[in-house]
Amino acid sequence: MDKEIFEVVLNKSAQDSKIKRIIEMKSESALPTGENFTSTILKITLKVVLGNGRIATKTFIAKKGYTGEAAEQPRKENSLFRTEVSVYTNVLREMGYLMEEFGDTEGPLWCEFIHYSRADSIIILEDLKASGFNTVKRTEPQDLDHARLALRSFGRYHAMAKVLEERGLISKDGYKPYIFLNDEVCIRNLLYAPFQTLIKGMRKSWGEEWTEYADKLSRVSFEDLSKRIKDSGNFDDNTFKCLNHGDGWNNNMMFKHDWEGKPIEMRFVDFQVPHYNSPCMDVTYYLYSSINPSVRHQNLKSLIELYHESLTSSLERFGYKGSKPTLEDINNGMERLVFFGTWFFTSTFACVLTERTDAMDLDLIFKTNGEEGYNLSVYCEDGVIEMIGEDLKALVKLFDES
């Protein structure tokens, strides 16, 4: 077969599968109540006519900008969405080209971007569920197999971002500072406020043995917390830094599983808060927000080693010419962020894992500057002590040693 005939065959094949006309269209919520905090996620189902005349069903995801009080605080004028669109159309597109250049066959770490309507503040994306991807249930933290795949994926993502930076295709100056480390409104409302509710829960239902811990933690002022949080992420200029995902937690990851239920592929979603810093930020945020605490306690050393191997081997694979971080560098970065991770975990993990859909009201939280909006009952539920107690004692020890 010569190239002219092959060209005709390929063009016909592409036209046969192309959508020619939409017959019907319907939309419905893609997530249950309580599963997403900053966007409205819709599933769009289309009945279409294809180029070859066949009737087919196609599904897409529509992500609509959230317009409540909470959305106005960290970012104004829908810049969250503009940032995400920029990541899809610039960063992720270039990462795809990089994978093609070096023959990386592991698959992309993102879904396909279809369209952005600025007028309607809507992003249209590939429906990953149609390809067999699903999230891990929010109320069941990830196990070791999922953690290993996620950290390997973070290593690949960070490596590709660093290579793009080295080539001048993305700039470290193009991203705003991380909101959890630099935005005092977010630190107060998303880190300090839930901890005050946790302390109330400890005093109400945890028993006398926790009174001393509650008393010590209640003496931590917002100013003290804010300074310590900011200092933890203030890495010096010699630190290996790259573009971070910024919100890599359980609900922003989708996995494909084999017939035994073991995860074999992963995709990141929600690229609204990318930032430039040590990659240990993403790793810390993930480890303390998404996996079973016992998995983290028992496997932290090996998980960090796995991440480092993925990062450095991916840097090598994609032709990075700069110096690579040693395992000691990564361990030092993780140690620096232990306070941030532990505070973040103990203050918010109960809200993430509860079956309740009213654990927190972001609009009310930002409207009242954190005085209201966190449900005290969440911190009094059965199992909360077993879930966060060990880390809470470790947090008090960090203050005693400082």
Write the layout of secondary structure elements.
Layout: H1 3-17, E1 19-29, E2 39-50, E3 55-65, H2 69-72, H3 79-101, E4 113-117, E5 122-126, E6 133-134, H4 144-166, H5 179-182, H6 184-205, H7 211-218, H8 222-232, E7 242-244, E8 253-257, E9 263-268, E10 275-277, H9 280-289, H10 293-317, H11 327-336, H12 338-353, H13 362-367, H14 384-401
Antiparallel strand pairs: 1-2, 2-3, 3-5, 4-5, 6-8, 7-10, 8-9
Helix pairs in contact: 3-4, 4-10, 6-7, 6-8, 6-12, 9-12, 12-14
How do you describe this structure in short?
The protein has 402 residues and is α+β, with helices and mostly antiparallel strands.
Radius of gyration (CA) equals: 23 Å
Beginning-to-end CA distance, first to last residue: 74 Å
Order of adjacent strands in the largest pleated sheet: 1-2-3-5-4
* H/E element order: HEEEHHEEEHHHHHEEEEHHHHHH
| Basic shape | globular
Name the helicity range.
40-55%
Strand content: 15-25%
Work out the number of β strands: 10
